[in-house]
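Record type: monomer structure entry
Structure origin: computed from sequence
Chain ID: A
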Amino acid sequence: MYGSEVSLANPSPSHICMLDFGDPFRKHHMVCRYRNKPQLPWSAISLPSGVFVICMLVGYIVGAAWSHYDNVKEDCRKMEELKNRQRQPMLLNLSSLQLFLMRSERP
């Protein structure tokens, strides 16, 4: 766990602990040097990254759904407009036919 004496050119991570043996006139400290550097905290790195990716995916899905909703709404409006265009000539033909029948019934 502890390494050997290391030169100043390559300092290893160390931890200093203050020790108290009950003597107020003498202060002691212990320096611990580790052989290896501590590992990266992968859970602290991956968790925010995962949350970010999930939020981006949810945003993309909501955006795509909203776009699809707008497209369907526009298509529905176009179909209603076409339906009204088709009804108008039919109503004109029906009214002219009724007018023709009324005139033909009169003597």
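Annotation 1: The CA atoms of residues 52 and 89 lie 57 Å apart.
Annotation 2: The chain has two domains: 1-37, 45-107.
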